[in-house]
Amino acid sequence: MELLEAIRGRYTADAFGEEAPPRDVIELLIECAVWAPNHQLTEPWTFHVVAGQAREEMGQVLVEWLKGTHPSTPDQEALDQASRTAMRSPVMIAVGQTVDPEGEAVRDLEDYAACCAAVQNLMLAAHAEGLVTKWGTGRTSRNSALKEFLGLTERDRIVGYIFLGYPAEEPPSDRERTPPKISWQGL
Ligand SMILES: Cc1cc2nc3c(=O)[nH]c(=O)nc-3n(C[C@H](O)[C@H](O)[C@H](O)COP(=O)(O)O)c2cc1C
Predict the structure, then answer these.
(1) Mapped to the 3 state alphabet, what secondary structure does the chain carry?
(2) Range of 100's domain?
C-alpha cells in the first residue's frame, strides 16, 4: 500500500473479528514501530502483547484492583466492564515508555513523543497489512497492578493500549479533519 494512502486511510476501529493476526505479522508491526525517530536513540519503548486467555487474566487483574481500591463495593457493571477491558479485540499491544527516574523532564517529553511516533508507525503498518487498530488510554494506563501484569515497573508509563485485529465492519464514511492552521513565512 502506498504511504499517503495508508496515512489517510487508517482509522480507529470499533469492531474486530475474532481471529488473531499471526505472531510473525505482529512482530512485523513492532519492527516497523521501532523505526520511529527517537532523540539520542534512547529507544524508550517496550511492547506487551496480550492475546487469548491472557486477555481474561488481564481483565481479572483489573477486577481485583477495582474491588481493592473502590471506597464502596463497585457495581457489577463496572466489574463486568473491567473484566472485558482486553476482550474487545483478539490481540492487544500495550506500548510502554521506560522512564528514567533520574532523567530530565525534557528527556521524558522527548521519549514520550518518540513512543507516540512508534504507535503511529505500528498502526500504519497494521493498516497496510489489512488490519485495524484502536488506540486506547484512560485511567487504567496509570494502574500499578496492570503495569505489574504487563511486566512494566511502577515508574514506567503506558503510552497506549493498541487493540488489533481484522476488520469486522466497513470503515467509517464520516471521518474528517478541519483544514490545518498553517503559518507561512518565506514561501
Ligand atoms: C493518545 C490517544 C488516546 C486515545 N484514547 C482513546 C480512548 O481511550 N478511547 C477511544 O475510543 N479512542 C481513543 N483514541 C482514538 C481517538 O479517539 C481517534 O484517533 C480519533 O477519534 C480520530 O479518529 P481516527 O483515528 O479514525 O482518525 C485515542 C487516540 C490517541 C492519540
Answers:
(1) CCHHHHHHHCCECCCECCCCCCHHHHHHHHHHHCCCCCHHHCCCEEEEEEECHHHHHHHHHHHHHHHHHCCCCCCHHHHHHHHCCCCCCCEEEEEEECCCCCCCHHHHHHHHHHHHHHHHHHHHHHHHCCCEEEEECCHHHHCHHHHHHHCCCCCCEEEEEEEEECECCCCCCCCCCCCCCCCCCCC
(2) 17-165
